[in-house]
Amino acid sequence: MRGGIHSPIFLLLFTLCSCTYLSEDIRAQTSTSAISAQNSSSGQYGSSSEKLATLEPDYIPLVDRPHFNEPFSQRIDYNRLSETTLTQTVGNVPPAVLTVPDDTPRKSRQPVDLWARIVDDYQLDVDTHPSVQPYIRWYARKQSYLDRVADRARPYLYDIVTEIESRNMPGEIALLPIVESAFQPFAYSPGRAAGIWQFIPATGRHFGLKQNWWYDGRRDVYRSTRAALDYLQQLHQQFEGDWLLALAAYNTGAYNVTRAIRKNRKKGKPTDFWSLSLPAETRGYVPKLLAIAYVLKHADKVGVHFNPIPNQPYWKTVKLDSQLDLAKAAEFAGVSIEEIYRLNPGLNRWATPPGAFELLLPADRISAFKEKLEKTPSSMRLSWKRHVIKRGESLGLIAKKYHTSISQLKELNQLRSNRIRAGHALIVPVAAKSMQQYTLSEIQRKLDLLNRPANSQRFKIIHTVKSGDSLWEIARTHHVKVETLARWNNFSPRDPLRIGQKLIIWKKYSAKQTGANHLVNQRIRKVTYTVRKGDSLARISKNFKIGVAQIKSWNRIGKYIHPGQKLTLFVDVTRQSES
What we know:
disordered N terminus, 42% helix, 24 helices, Lysozyme, 10% strand, single chain, mainly alpha, two-stranded antiparallel sheet
């Protein structure tokens, strides 16, 4: 009895003790190896605070990869591994926890914050190549810039991330508009690129982005996002699955990247992005994206933060079957006209384009909008006026007067040509409110450009001269020099003032000013243009749809220019799609 009972108990206790001992031994070995590796690393780079301050090329503190933990110095190319779980031990990581991504759908867990969702979708090797480090340091010093970017991205980011995930593309691409345009839908470059994805006119048309008098699809965030991702996927395939080369080609063109690859192959050199001889802008373009991706993932270590953006739709689309005045759209939705423009920056005018159109509205305003829209017949969605043609009037003059297009007047009045006769009547669409309410209307754009000073951070006010006013007193009241005030109004400081005279005064924007003034300020972009061989003031004026006199005034030049000369231009981005 005693021997029979003792034997099984003894064996059981012996087994348990052995397992415990082995487990502790494994932990000790793992801990020792980790400490040893850490000490070795510390000997090379110094303390953690020193590492973070210097941001050595191949250092990132032990980071959490999307699927497993490992020291960053162990450069495991897990994106190329085909199996979901490795069956061998890598370093000191147990095989059971070392998992890699595969082609299965994104994980169902959704973070509360969109920035975290983007990091979860990372696929690129966000390392600290020497070319990336200067941009990491730059972003680390620009908290106010990151705040502005987050504020601008808020209405658009959810849709961008969702579309990227549906295509299984790297989450880092959601950050590309930061590099391209800082998420400014009215961004405009000297190369005539527009929108948050910076499409030039020809490339935009190639990818289906319409550009006409009423509308510019390059600034339409919804449609341009899909066009940009189509383009990037095409480049990704063209460059055999190399995302860095695809991104470089998005910036400089596929031809330039292909030519650089061929040159390196002839010389027997590597053909990865870092080894290619590319334009200076492109050499900085990809590192900027990798830098902002690193800063987002390691914001705490870098010492910055990203203002949270809720992981939920900001807007929804409403399909319109006919043209709609934007003032009525704002009224139906219970929002400002500026909010309509902010969500639909592709709109150039005071109404949606003729025919069907998808309008973006705040998600919580859709029901109210639809209810009022359904009660409004198509004929009442625009205001109409009967215009009797006067002698000497042309279709162009009438269209200009009512802020509409010649083509729409012809379509509405069933005209086959531009010829009209005095005494006949035309039906013309008119805005429901005064044109000052439509911050993207033609007349408002022209008023913005009129007498615009070199400082684009100012807005215009009108002072009406009263009895007892003097130029000196008005200048002192508005904190400007008498000479400056006189120059703005095109007269001499010695010229007498008249009661009732209108004086233009340019005031600086305050930090708190937003709304229409801020939107207008976004729309007029300051562009530095380098004169090319064969350029003339007339050609530059035509290309950017500004006046020759304005170019002369802004740059204080005569009628002659020369190649290499730098010109400052204030360009209305909403006019660049006009034919």
